[in-house]
TrEMBL record:
<feature type="compositionally biased region" description="Basic and acidic residues">
    <location>
        <begin position="137"/>
        <end position="146"/>
    </location>
</feature>
<dbReference type="InterPro" id="IPR007251">
    <property type="entry name" value="Iron_permease_Fet4"/>
</dbReference>
<keyword id="KW-0472">Membrane</keyword>
<dbReference type="GO" id="GO:0055085">
    <property type="term" value="P:transmembrane transport"/>
</dbReference>
<dbReference type="Pfam" id="PF04120">
    <property type="entry name" value="Iron_permease"/>
</dbReference>
<feature type="transmembrane region" description="Helical">
    <location>
        <begin position="59"/>
        <end position="76"/>
    </location>
</feature>
<feature type="region of interest" description="Disordered">
    <location>
        <begin position="121"/>
        <end position="146"/>
    </location>
</feature>
<feature type="transmembrane region" description="Helical">
    <location>
        <begin position="24"/>
        <end position="47"/>
    </location>
</feature>
<keyword id="KW-0812">Transmembrane</keyword>
<protein>
    <submittedName>
        <fullName>Low affinity iron permease family protein</fullName>
    </submittedName>
</protein>
<feature type="compositionally biased region" description="Acidic residues">
    <location>
        <begin position="124"/>
        <end position="136"/>
    </location>
</feature>
<keyword id="KW-1133">Transmembrane helix</keyword>
Length: 146
């Protein structure tokens, strides 16, 4: 009974399902997962051949692929969310570590599309100012050479 309480308590349930989804995502993207999918498809082809591709064999394939596709959609999305979060944390750490970095940009992924567009415009303006400054600097260098 302790075993069941341990694995289905609130604190371990999140870790339990997280571990399962991580393992499934890794396995389905591995060579073994791809070979298994190909093997199942080959099995269906052989089964369908002997059953003359009956309605039943078609329904088995359609139902199976629909269920697997539905589940994989959510598993892939969970994996992508985890990867995005890890990448964002790494980028935040880099910004935080740089002395010249703008700490206002930490947590920028929580902004709306409009707010992100405004920030992008600010960077575009900064680039234009830098281009103008570089041109003025080159002109001054040319004047000094003459």
């Amino acid at each position: 009974m302790k075993f069941i309480k341990y694995y289905f308590s609130d604190s371990t349930r999140k870790d339990f399902w997280g571990a399962i989804t991580t393992k499934v995502i890794k396995w389905t993207g591995s060579t073994a997962g791809i070979m298994t999918a190909n093997g199942l498809m080959l099995l269906w082809l052989v089964y369908g051949y002997f059953k003359h591709y009956s309605e039943n064999s078609q329904m088995i394939l359609n139902t199976g692929t629909s269920i697997i596709t539905f589940i994989m959609l959510f598993l892939i999305q969970k994996g992508q969310n985890k990867a995005d979060k890890a990448t964002q944390l790494k980028l935040d750490e880099i910004i935080y570590a740089l002395e010249t970095g703008n700490n206002k940009r930490l947590g920028i992924e929580k902004l709306t599309e409009e707010e992100l567009d405004q920030i992008k415009e600010e960077y575009n303006l900064d680039e234009e100012d830098n281009d103008e400054a570089k041109e003025e600097e080159e002109i001054k260098k040319d004047e000094v050479k003459i």
